[in-house]
Specification:
The protein is of the alpha+beta class and about 250 residues long. It is built from 8 helices and 8 strands, in the order H-H-H-E-E-H-E-H-E-E-H-H-E-H-E-E. Helix 1 crosses helix 3 and helix 2 packs across helix 3. The longest helix is centred in the first third of the chain and has 15 residues, at about 10-25.
Length: about 250
């Protein structure tokens, strides 16, 4: 039987246990997860605590509740590029492949816009570190991305304010500087017209259609660690998803 530890809130321990089962593939898309009643009994917790753990999984986009049926694992759409970048950085210490390089166009303190403050969970102090980069290869710009970090992260990770490249990538550097490891991420994406600044950085005509991804990385305590906005030019494949036909 799973055991509750005192280091984390009980509902988070339950949610992390189920999340790990999903990410390992023990629970697959379409599988039903234990009900509130089953979780309360197996973990020896109250029904409200069990319900809160399922709500946490739902907010992470891992499960969905079906009225009158139960709670089921959702299909996981994968941001291939983000996953590959993080995996490569952890394995090799370098975030980009040979031929790819980033030009840092901004590394400074700034006041966060409302959507950035919301993504980072900033209640009062909206002062953040903003780091903007254009990633290129031999064919030209691949993507334009901006990362924002809360003030406490900026203070612990001073290289974020240096306009030099961080070869292992900002996330791996921030993990080492703060001791907070990225646990999972959420992505939201849309297509829209490029702004004048985006068009200039990516070498596009003004108002060209681009793909924009908002990417939030959370640590093991479900605290936002990084918020990033990535802008992809046309004809650049950035996402893929495999799925069964039956």
């Amino acid at each position: 039987m799973p055991q509750i530890e005192e280091a984390q809130p009980k509902y988070l321990q339950i949610a992390h246990h189920i999340r790990d089962q999903i990410l390992r593939g023990d629970l697959r898309p379409g599988d039903e997860v234990p009900s509130e009643r089953q979780l309360a009994a197996s973990w020896n917790v109250s029904r409200p605590t069990a319900a809160r753990s399922l709500e946490a999984l739902s907010s992470q986009g891992l499960v969905e509740k079906r009225q009158g049926s139960g709670t089921y694992v959702r299909g996981l759409e994968v941001n291939r590029r983000a996953r590959e970048l993080y995996g490569r950085a952890r394995q090799t210490g370098h975030i980009y492949t040979p031929g790819e390089y980033a030009v840092i166009t901004l590394a400074a303190w700034s006041q966060a816009q409302e959507h950035v403050a919301t993504a980072l969970g900033l209640a009062n102090d909206h002062r953040v570190v903003q780091r903007r980069r254009v990633t290129n290869n031999e064919t030209g710009p691949i993507t334009l991305s901006t990362s924002w970090f809360a003030a406490d992260v900026g203070q612990q990770a001073p290289k974020l304010l240096n306009p030099e490249r961080i070869r292992e990538g900002t996330l791996l550097y921030v993990e080492r500087a703060t001791g907070r490891r990225g646990s999972y991420a959420e992505d939201r994406m849309c297509a829209r017209a490029a702004t004048e600044e985006e068009a200039a950085d990516l070498g596009l005509e003004t108002a060209t259609a681009v793909l924009v991804v908002h990417h939030v990385v959370y640590d093991a305590q479900d605290r936002p660690l990084e918020f990033a906005e990535a802008t992809y030019p046309p004809d650049r494949w950035a996402f893929e998803q495999g799925y069964e036909l039956t």
